Amino acid sequence: MNLLRKRRIALSGLFFLAGLSFASWASRIPDFQQLFDLSEGQLGTLLLGMPLGSLIALPLAGWAVDKYGSRTVIIVGSLFYALSLLSLGYTVSVFQLGAAVIIFGMMGNIMNISLNTQALLVEDGYQRSILASFHGLWSLAGFAGAGIGALMIKLKWEPKLHYWVVAGIMILILLSAYRLLFKEEKKGSGGGLVLKKPDAILLRVGLVGFFGMMCEGCMFDWSGVYLKKVVMAGADLVPLGYVTFMAAMASGRFFSDTLANRWSKIVMLRISGGLIGLGLILAVAVPTFWAAVTGFLLVGFGTASVIPLSYSIAGRSKMYSPGIALALVSTISFFGFLLGPPLIGFIAEIFNLQVSFTVIALMGTCITLLVSIKTQIFDAHKTPANKKVSTSS
């Protein structure tokens, strides 16, 4: 096995542990709700801490990766990510839990930026698109984390014991992988936190991510509601919409790299936007269970490539280092995730959910439009001549 392949396997393990950590928290949310006797509204407010922490961490993550290199940030970040997960299990008040959720969200996004920056270095070594496969492993870890969570609940283990097991797995993966990570020869000067203005290319890529994550947020928060209130599906069938979407998005990431290498990233993004729009329109036009689930399947395949390909393009910015470029694109994209679900609720309040889903379908097709204008700016894939990476660990 050559060194580059070993690096890819090591980094794959780190992406998996990041997804496993997030899923481990998510799988025990009902336990925390019961433990602290939280109403639905109080729980919703508490869960806002996760995106808030993620948003706070974006400029910090870009600065840290630019100044110290992604390898250092991954090693330190993994340890603190494990500690932040453990801290959730030891909270004794709602205030402590809220603070711990914010910190956990911050560490998750620091890992996101540093891991994707490292993934760009591995991708440069392969000279072809491989970023989506890493994101596929993150999604796959979500299923594994949910399964482990279900087992822990069945065994009646408290969250803190559950999290000790996961933290142990995280440390073992880190110890096995960190020596194989790329060490950047040249690091940025830092230059302060990332409060910079994106150039035209990064703004365009950020908007692609914005619309992609808006559609993801729609599926995460509203697919079940749509099946229940519009399709009138039975309670036992309602979860299948979300599961179908997640399975399609996770599996789609494992073959989207192959298609991107065959057809180009821009073609894949055009197809992605088309699949999102088609899937949502199908769910709206034919509000039956199987039509809606088929539509959600198409949306899952459509969203699979959007963020990985957006990150891959952004990492080749000629104006900013990869860490800062990813942080800028992530910031723009993240607002789509935050604004999408409330926008659906607002439109549904005035009209209905079908109108809301139609609007989100149009947002999905905007991805196709954005990548069809001045397409040459999306074609850069090779490592810039002045950006060298070390082959040593």
Question: Explain this structure to me?
Answer:
It is a single chain. The chain is mostly helical and 393 residues long. The protein has 15 helices and no strands. Residues 381-393 have low confidence and may be disordered.
Summarize the structure.
The two termini are 16 Å apart. With 393 residues, the chain is mainly alpha-helical.
Give short descriptive properties of this protein:
15 helices; 393 residues; mainly alpha
pLDDT below 50 for ≥5 consecutive residues: which ranges?
381-393
What is the overall shape?
Answer: globular
**Compute the gyration radius: what is it?**
20 Å
User: Quick one: biggest sheet?
Assistant: none
Please report the distance between the alpha carbons of the first and last residues.
16 Å
Topology, number of strands: 0
Helix percentage: over 70%
Oligomer: single chain
The DSSP helix count reads 15
- The succession of helices and strands, N to C, reads HHHHHHHHHHHHHHH
Task: Report the average pLDDT across residues.
Answer: 88
- Percentage beta strand: under 5%
Structural class: mainly alpha
